Structure formats: structure tokens, C-alpha cells
């Protein structure tokens, strides 16, 4: 079941508002809804539910034939468990295999320390940064070598078994 914009927006309000405002930007729910509507037109969504409720999602959109941008990777604070994160990572790995994605790029507010640490743990490298944000990059082949990804894929990061949403 594909998540609705309202479900994604509710998770974004919970997980993004604080980092956005700490970075000096404004988190406006109406603008975020519009941004989501526009981005979902050309993005793939992977999601995890518990008891029917959206608890984690990721969006990826193509930037070029081989490089995709991770527009979002969000997990409800009460569901930031190895099981939920592994399930979401497995779905992202499946998407990468299905679409022939070779490289991933991502942007993170510096105020989002958990996301910065998560990117580093997964082996993303910093390619650019400014006073507010960091751009991360990795190849999917390097990502598949990481222990967290191998665990998410059940030991076989090349062919995980869970489709997106």
C-alpha cells in the first residue's frame, strides 16, 4: 500500500520541523504538502508500516541514468529500531537493483545529527557543504559492502527480497 501525502506529511512534521527550524529555515506544512505532491510525481517511494500505520519511508528520484537523489529517508522516532530501518534499507536496495541505480546522492541539514551519523555509518562521503547543509554521495556497490546493508538484505545485499511499498 503506497503511503498517502497526508501520511508522509504527518511523519515529516514530526521528524523534519525541528531540524529545519534549527537550520534557520521555515517549515510550513502547506509548502511541504505542495513540495511532496510535486516530488512524488517523479519519485519512487519505499515504505514500512506497523499495524497499518506508516512508520518509515524513503523517496528516491532519478537525476541521471545511474544516479538517484534520496529526497527523504524518515523514520518515526518511536520506530527507530534495527528491524524497521533494516526493512526500509532492504526495500531501497531492491529498488536500486530493479532500476539499475549505481550512485546515490543526498542532502542533510547539519542540525540533523542523527541523519549525518546515519549517512556516515552507511559509508556516504561528503561531496559539498555550506553553512546549513551537507551533500553526501556513495556508489551502490560501496553501500552494499556495509554491514548494515548486508544485514538489511539478509546477508545477500545484491538480491534483497522485499519490494517497495
Describe this structure in words.
The chain is globular. It has a single domain (5-152), classed as Aminopeptidase. Strand 5 (125-129) and strand 6 form a beta hairpin. The protein has a 6-stranded mixed sheet with strand order 1-2-3-4-6-5, with helices on both faces. With 165 residues, it is α+β, with helices and mostly antiparallel strands. It is built from 6 helices and 6 strands, in the order H-H-E-E-E-H-E-H-E-E-H-H. The longest helix has 18 residues, at 5-22.
In a nutshell, what does this entry contain?
By secondary structure, the chain is of the alpha+beta class. It is 42% helix and 27% strand.
Layout of strands and helices, then pairs:
Elements lengths: L4 H18 L6 H12 L3 E7 L2 E10 L4 E9 L6 H18 L3 E7 L3 H9 L3 E5 L3 E7 H6 L1 H6 L13
Helix pairs in contact: 1-2
What are the main properties of this structure?
single chain; 165 residues; alpha+beta; Aminopeptidase; six-stranded mixed β-sheet; 6 helices; 42% helix; disordered C terminus
Largest sheet data: 6 strands, mixed
- Reported by name, the CATH topology is Aminopeptidase
Amount of beta strand: 25-35%
**If helices are DSSP runs of H or I spanning 4 or more residues, what is the number of helices?**
6
Strand order of the largest sheet: 1-2-3-4-6-5
Percent in helix = 40-55%
Compute the gyration radius: what is it?
15 Å
Shape: globular
Structural class: alpha+beta
Mean pLDDT: 88
Name the CATH class: Alpha Beta
- Helix-strand pattern, N to C? HHEEEHEHEEHH
Compute the separation of the termini in Å: 6 Å
**Beta strands, count:** 6
